[in-house]
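A quick aside before the break. I want you to see a complete sequence-to-structure record at least once, exactly as it would be stored in a machine-readable document. Don't worry about memorizing anything.
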Amino acid sequence: MKKEGRKEGINVPRGACISTAAYNEYVDKTGLRGRILLELNRKPFEEMRWEELWDLSEKIKYMFVRTPFPPEMGKELEEKLAGYFGEKAVAVRSSAPGEDSAKTSFAGVHASYVNVRGAEAILRHLRLVWASLWSDSALLYRTEMGLDIFKSSMAVLIQEIVEGRVSGVAFGMNPEDASEALVEAVYGLNKGLVDGTVEPDRWVLERKSGNIKKHYHAERDRGVFGTEEGTELRELPENLKGNPPLTQEEVTQVFNLTLKAETLFGRREGRRKPQDVEWTIRDNTLYTLQSRPITTLVGEDRDEKRLWYLSLRRSFGNLKELRKNIEEKHIPAMQAEAQELEKEELSGLTESTLAEEIERRAGIYRKWHDIYWDEFIPFAHGARLFGQVYNETVDSKDPYEFADLLSGTGMLSLERNRKLEEMAGKLRKAPGLLQKAKNFTPDPGLGKELDAFISEYGGSYSESSAAREGLVRLLVEMASSPPLSQPPASPVKAKEQDRIRKLKENFFSRFEGEKKQFAAELLDLGRASYRLRDDDNIYLGKIEAELRRALLEGEKRLKKRGLKEAELPEIEKLPNLEPIIEEITEKMIKTLKDPKYPSEWKKSPGKTEKTEKTEEKMKPRQLLGNPSGPGTSQGSARVILQESDLYDIKAGEVLVCDAVDPNMTFIVPLCSAIVERRGGMLIHGAIIAREYGIPCVTGVPDATKLIKNGDYLAVDGYLGIVTVLERRGW
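That is the input. The structure line, written in tokens, reads:
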């Protein structure tokens, strides 16, 4: 450890650095390095989605949580840390080689912990910071920057906490305008500013003179402050709400600090590079907490994918606000809009008016699609946040045990499936009605129930006759099989409920005082996030179904006009409009409005000879993925390539698909297991599989190409292995 103090006239907190040598000694002596490499090589990195990356990183992080220091190393570190810091509150921050260089910046990627007290706690958080070297966002960034992830190492900076009256960040050069500099400030700690829960005051300065050009005032209603156990978000007193956090003189002082840091690091790196500085003011003394080069400046490429990825990570306070917005505002509005669209009769519209209606519906869909990505998707981090806290506090042998506490939340898809089972139960008890359904003979009672079902859940069922017939076929298959759900009072159910109760009690026992309330709120938030991860797609699916209904009406008009089947988009067969929604709506609108508009819509790409030969050669017997739903099962494969395939499922088959969309989970109760190409514990297929206790393996590369309909599979949801016991579909 190396002590750090005041240098170059810049005040820095008292601290120490744990070097990369300590990290390398730890991962080598404990065998962690080899175990990490094994996990990283499970699947090609470039094929992983964000859910898979998070699963991977959580598994690796859990290795650090459960792997103690080698005895001699742990003893030496504990003695030195105790002697140097005692029980003083410290921050434990990452300092990976190259993370704050002139070319790369890992700001917001690696973990930092504040208000950590005592040598034992520091060592535990030291391992957590090391683990963040393998976080999903850090892995993604290293890959995109061309860094060798297998050679990664981590130093850690331990600093005494300087709890200032005011904190903030400053940019020696505005990333948007090279002639300006920026200063942002909040009352209390920087944590609220960095994680987005507290809006900062912002000053724009002339970089050349330091003169203030503009001051953007914040709401100034809350701030993050330290407590004995960590930090908390508090309401500001009235005298602070009405006053900016900094005076003009203090703004200038902070700006001058960025120039000092620029000069200092410019000498070290051989060229000046404007700095991004984190600072705080206590007792009228300005302290520098961190300084790094600004890597995204005017004219430079922006890594939009990484920025979006980082935006998914939200604080507890921000997630609570998102939840309120989603549950109290967005979902009711989305449902109301879908109901209004459903009431509209489209068959009587002229072609020109229908084109306008399609354009309006496409606009409504795009609006909700944007809200979905801006708010619903980030809210999924609530389940991840609970998982991270659970794994940092509970000594479990399973890094995904936390998911057991998130299930049983009354998802819409489960309610939908119960209603399907009720209809199937009526058919099961009435042989005459079942025979009518098999022959597709209309029945007023069943027809009325189907209408109500489609109206309530929309989605894949839409208004198309093929989807409606498919739904009837599905009901017939369900009615021809034993009831799908277990009786509520079964011993298996009772035993599982008792296990979940004990897990919950064990989790809460790790918290004391006010922290118990936090733990309860976090679990509730995680369960809501987990539920909405599935439900939100059903709400959005109803909006999409109404757009699809209008497009189907448009397609019907074009057929009457004389366009051939080959010239039309075959909307009924599209499992998901999203990838080509812009193209389809634009062409449909133009074609309806202008009879002379070119009628060629698309060309369906056929398989090339090369593709067919490649698939023919690749017939592995064992496929490796991520264990996402415990249990083992065997059955014939049912490969889903398009929406119409859903309705061919037979009881006991293994569902094999690219990904289980929430609008297609109505077939899951019939399945004996699920295999998906996409991966992750928090994707829809894995969520619904755990609700039903069905074995599930996700993240299987090329699953829908390497497995054919009829292949007999063994699925191990504990180990993440799919074995082809017999080739029948080739």
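Two observations worth writing down. DSSP finds 24 helices and 21 strands in the chain. The two ends are 62 Å apart (CA to CA). We'll return to this after the break.
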